[in-house]
C-alpha cells in the first residue's frame, strides 16, 4: 500500500493522484449529497425559472448554480445525477467485466470451436457502431435503469473477453497449469483458482478505462432520451434540456457538462496511471 | 503395480504423423524404482504424460495399449476417475520448479490443494499438514514459509515444495520427470538423497525419468533405456552398467566422464542426431548411428529378448552380440 502511495507521488504519478482525488470527491458528493440541505432536485418552481448562478450560498432557496427552465436547482440535480451515473456505470462495468472475463477465460482455456465462436461474436459486435447497437437494444426492450445497465454491459464485455483470452493463452501453457492437473484439479478449478488470479491485473485496468467509456455512453443515451428516465436526474438529460437555452441561460448546460467532463477525465487519468503502475509492458487495445 | 502393454502414442503436425511410442511394454513391481533413460524425443516423458491422461490431445493421440495400475486400466478410465487418482494415488514431480508453481498463490495453499481435494481436509487441517510436509522435505521453519510466495524460494527449495505437493497424499506411485535437470549439481545430490529417503519412508514405487545415467545409477533398481519410443535395453542397474548389450546403452555409458580416462582425452560421442520421428528409418531406429549395426538391423526391428548370460531380468533389443564385438575390437 505504501508502495502504491509512493508511486502516486512520483514522476507522472501526479496525474493519477489528481484522478484519484477527483474520483474520491465525486464519490463523497454522491454518497453524502442527500445529507446536505439542498433543494429537492425534482421540485419545480415556475416563479424561479432560469435564475442565474450566484455567489450567495446562504439562505433557503438560494441557487448557487442557478435553476433550469422549470425552476429546479441545478446543483441538486448535478448531485442527484452523480448518484445515477455512478450506480449505472458501476453496475455496467461490474456486470460486463464479470461476463467478459468469464467468456475470455473459457475461450482462451478451451480453445477450439468455442473460442472461434466467441471471438467471431466479439468481432461482429465490434463491427456494429456502439450507439447504434445500444439504440437498437433499448428500442427493443424499452428504456429503464435495468435495461440501461444491461446495454452498457453488453457493449463492454468484448474488451474484457479479448484481453483476458490473450492472457489465458499465455498462462495456460505455463507448467503450473499442468502441475495443477497432475494433482487432480478439474478444469473449472484450474480456470478459477490458478488462471484467473494471473489475468486479473489486465482485467482491472480494462475495467477502469471502460468505466470512463460507459459514463460517456450513458450520458449519450440519456441525452437522446433513451437512458435515465424522468423524474431521475441525469447529466445527459440535463445537457439535452439545456441545449435549447444555451443562448439565454448558459448555466443550464454548462455545469452538468463540466461535471461530466471532470468525471471522465478523472477516471481516464486514474486508468492510464493504473495501467502503467500495474504493468508498464501491457498494451490495452 | 503398474503393467503397461503395447502402449502406442502418435503425434500429428502439419498433416504429418509420427508414432512416438511404438508398442511399449513394461512392468514396475511394488516398491521398485525404475530409471528411464533416453535422449530428447525418446518418448520417455510423453509416455508418462499419456499414462496420466495429461497428454495434450490433439496433437497427441493414444493409439492403443493398456496400462493397468492397481487393477484399473489408466488408458480406459474416464477423466473424472483419472482426476481422483492423480495427486492421490499417483504423484508427479515435473522438471522445472521455477515454472511449475503458481506465482500468485502462496506455497501453503498450493501444498494444501491436493489435501483438500483428495483427503477432504479443511483449509486449516491442510495447512497444518503442509507444515509437516515442508519439514519432511527438509524445509525448516515451515509454518512461516507457508505464507510465502514461490519467488521467495530458491530453485532447490521450490523443487522440495514440488516434492511435498507430490507426496502430500502419500501416493503409491511417484513419477519424477527429470526432477533434478534444472538444478545445480550440488542441489541435485540433495534432492536425490531426499527422494531416496522418502521412498523408504513411504514405501513408494517410483518411475524416475532422466537423461542422466549418473542419476539412474544413484537411485534406480532397474534401468530402462529408451530410443525413438522403444525400449533398447532393460535390466538391473548393476548388470546393465557392468555389461551393456545395446550399442546405444554402451554409447551413453562411454559418454560419461570417469576417473580412468587419461587427462585431456575427449569424451566419447554418439555420432549423429536423435532421429526425426516423422521419418524413422526401417529396422532398428538406432542403426544409422550405430557403428556395430548389421545388415539385418537396417531392415528388421529387433524384438526385446532376455539376455541369457547376464542377471535375470536383463533384456535387450539388438541383432548383434555386443560383448563379442567389443571383445574383438579390443
Layout: helices, strands, pairs:
The complex is a heterodimer of chains A (285) and B (330).
Chain A: H1 2-8, H2 13-32, H3 74-110, H4 112-127, H5 130-141, H6 145-171, H7 175-182, H8 187-223, H9 235-243, H10 251-278
Helix pairs in contact in A: 2-3, 2-10, 3-4, 3-6, 3-8, 3-10, 4-6, 5-6, 6-8, 7-8, 8-9, 8-10, 9-10
Chain B: E1 2-13, E2 16-28, E3 33-37, H1 44-52, E4 60-69, E5 72-73, H2 79-85, E6 90-93, H3 107-119, H4 123-136, H5 142-145, H6 155-167, E7 173-177, H7 185-202, E8 205-210, H8 213-219, E9 222-227, E10 230-236, H9 237-242, H10 247-254, E11 305-306, E12 315-316, H11 322-329
Parallel strand pairs in B: 3-8, 3-9, 6-7, 7-8
Antiparallel strand pairs in B: 1-2, 1-4, 4-5, 9-10, 10-12, 11-12
The CATH architecture of the largest domain in chain B can be named as: 3-Layer(aba) Sandwich
| CATH top level assignment of chain A | Mainly Alpha
CATH topology of chain A: MetI-like fold
| Average residue pLDDT of chain A | 86
Helix content of chain B: 25-40%
Instruction: State the helicity of chain A in percent bands.
Output: over 70%
Q: Give the structural class of chain A.
A: mainly alpha
Shape category of chain B: globular
CATH class identity of the largest domain in chain B: Alpha Beta
Radius of gyration of chain B over alpha carbons?
21 Å
Q: Spans of chain B with pLDDT under 50 lasting ≥5 residues?
A: none
CATH topology annotation of the largest domain in chain B: Rossmann fold
Count of helix runs of chain A: 10
- Taking all Cα atoms into account, the compactness measure Rg of chain A is 22 Å
Element-level helix/strand string of chain A: HHHHHHHHHH
Q: Treating each run of at least 4 consecutive H or I residues as one helix, how many helices of chain B?
A: 11
Task: State the separation between the terminal residues of chain B, measured CA to CA.
Answer: 42 Å
- What is the domain tally of chain B? 2
Amino acid at each position: 500500500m505504501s508502495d502504491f502511495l509512493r508511486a502516486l507521488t512520483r514522476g507522472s504519478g501526479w496525474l493519477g493522484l489528481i484522478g484519484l482525488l477527483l474520483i474520491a470527491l465525486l464519490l463523497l458528493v454522491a454518497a453524502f449529497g442527500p445529507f446536505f440541505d439542498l433543494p429537492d432536485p425534482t421540485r419545480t418552481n415556475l416563479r424561479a425559472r432560469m435564475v442565474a448562478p450566484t455567489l450567495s450560498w446562504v439562505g433557503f432557496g438560494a441557487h448557487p448554480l442557478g435553476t433550469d427552465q422549470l425552476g429546479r436547482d441545478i446543483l441538486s440535480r448535478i448531485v442527484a445525477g452523480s448518484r445515477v451515473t455512478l450506480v449505472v456505470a458501476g453496475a455496467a462495468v461490474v456486470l460486463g467485466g464479470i461476463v467478459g472475463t468469464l467468456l475470455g477465460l473459457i475461450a482462451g482455456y478451451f480453445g477450439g470451436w468455442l473460442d472461434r465462436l466467441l471471438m467471431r461474436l466479439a468481432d461482429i459486435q465490434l463491427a456494429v457502431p456502439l450507439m447504434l447497437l445500444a439504440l437498437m437494444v433499448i428500442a427493443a426492450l424499452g428504456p429503464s435503469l435495468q435495461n440501461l445497465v444491461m446495454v452498457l454491459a453488453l457493449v463492454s464485455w468484448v474488451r474484457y473477453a479479448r484481453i483476458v483470452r490473450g492472457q489465458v493463452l499465455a498462462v495456460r501453457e505455463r507448467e503450473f497449469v499442468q502441475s495443477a492437473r497432475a494433482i487432480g484439479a478439474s478444469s473449472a478449478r484450474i480456470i478459477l483458482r490458478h488462471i484467473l488470479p494471473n489475468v486479473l491485473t489486465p482485467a482491472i485496468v480494462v475495467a477502469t478505462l471502460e468505466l470512463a467509456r460507459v459514463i460517456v455512453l450513458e450520458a449519450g443515451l440519456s441525452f437522446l432520451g433513451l437512458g435515465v428516465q424522468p423524474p431521475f436526474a441525469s447529466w445527459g438529460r440535463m445537457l439535452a434540456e439545456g441545449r435549447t437555452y444555451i443562448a439565454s441561460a448558459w448555466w443550464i448546460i454548462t455545469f452538468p457538462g463540466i461535471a461530466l467532463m471532470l468525471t471522465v477525465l478523472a477516471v481516464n487519468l486514474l486508468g492510464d496511471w493504473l495501467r502503467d503502475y500495474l504493468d508498464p509492458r501491457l498494451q490495452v487495445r | 503395480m503398474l503393467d503397461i502393454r503395447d502402449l502406442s502414442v502418435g503425434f500429428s503436425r502439419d498433416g504429418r504423423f509420427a508414432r512416438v511410442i511404438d508398442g511399449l511394454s513394461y512392468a514396475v513391481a511394488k516398491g521398485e524404482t525404475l530409471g528411464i533413460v533416453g535422449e530428447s524425443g525418446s518418448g520417455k516423458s510423453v509416455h508418462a504424460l499419456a499414462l496420466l491422461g495429461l497428454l495434450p490431445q490433439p496433437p497427441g493421440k493414444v493409439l492403443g495399449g493398456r496400462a493397468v495400475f492397481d487393477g484399473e486400466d489408466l488408458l480406459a478410465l474416464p477423466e473424472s476417475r483419472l482426476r481422483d487418482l492423480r495427486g492421490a494415488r499417483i504423484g508427479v514431480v515435473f522438471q522445472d520448479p521455477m515454472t511449475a508453481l503458481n506465482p500468485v498463490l502462496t506455497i501453503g495453499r498450493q501444498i494444501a490443494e491436493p489435501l483438500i481435494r483428495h483427503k477432504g481436509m479443511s483449509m486449516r487441517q491442510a495447512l497444518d499438514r503442509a507444515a509437516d510436509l515442508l519439514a519432511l522435505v527438509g524445509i525448516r521453519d515451515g509454518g512461516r514459509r507457508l505464507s510465502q510466495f514461490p519467488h521467495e524460494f530458491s530453485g532447490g527449495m521450490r523443487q522440495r515444495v514440488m516434492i511435498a505437493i507430490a507426496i502430500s497424499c502419500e501416493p503409491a506411485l511417484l513419477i519424477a520427470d527429470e526432477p533434478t535437470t534444472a538444478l545445480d549439481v550440488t542441489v541435485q545430490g540433495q534432492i536425490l538423497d531426499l527422494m531416496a529417503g522418502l521412498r523408504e519412508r513411504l514405501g513408494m514405487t517410483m518411475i524416475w525419468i532422466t537423461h542422466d545415467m549418473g542419476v539412474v545409477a544413484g537411485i534406480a533398481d532397474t534401468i530402462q533405456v529408451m530410443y525413438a519410443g522403444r525400449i533398447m535395453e532393460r535390466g538391473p542397474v548393476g548388470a546393465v552398467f557392468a555389461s551393456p548389450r545395446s550399442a546405444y546403452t554402451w554409447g551413453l555409458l562411454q559418454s560419461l566422464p570417469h576417473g580412468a580416462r587419461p587427462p585431456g582425452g575427449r569424451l566419447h560421442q554418439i555420432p549423429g542426431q536423435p532421429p526425426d520421428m516423422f521419418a524413422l528409418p526401417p529396422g532398428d531406429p538406432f542403426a544409422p548411428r550405430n557403428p556395430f549395426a548389421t545388415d539385418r538391423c537396417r531392415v528388421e526391428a529387433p524384438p526385446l529378448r532376455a539376455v541369457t548370460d547376464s542377471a535375470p531380468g536383463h533384456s535387450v533389443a539388438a541383432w548383434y552380440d555386443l560383448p563379442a564385438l567389443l571383445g574383438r575390437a579390443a
